[in-house]
Amino acid sequence: MTVALAAPAEPVPPKIELFDPDTAPDHLLMPEHVPCWPLQERADLREQRVESGRLRAAWAEIYRDPDRHWPLYELAEKLVDLEDYFRRWRFNHVTTVERVIGLKRGTGGTQGVAYLRRMLEVELFPELWHVRTEL
Hints:
Elements: H1 26-29, H2 53-64, H3 70-101, H4 113-119, H5 126-134
Helix pairs in contact: 2-5, 3-4
């Protein structure tokens, strides 16, 4: 007598929902008394995001009372650290590209070093940098 063993069933991966700030509970995003959602959406994600006054105001509230909003304060500081490291990488990249190809056209069809120098001015999290002026 032969017994056929069934292969173990493949586990079903959990359904992953994409984050939607329009439906996410506000208390998980920002303090309940500082509305900042929904943020303005960009039609073309290649365009630089415009700074949001509402989001800057929310970050100001968090920075004014970090003990009350510790997880968000900590997130903000980690995002600032990330941008700081990314800016350093950009600067090193510009220097390396200029050293290797000079002022020739970039490998991606850009203006090369001129383009990369302009990118040094782009802020990933402008609200987190500009809120410091208000504090």
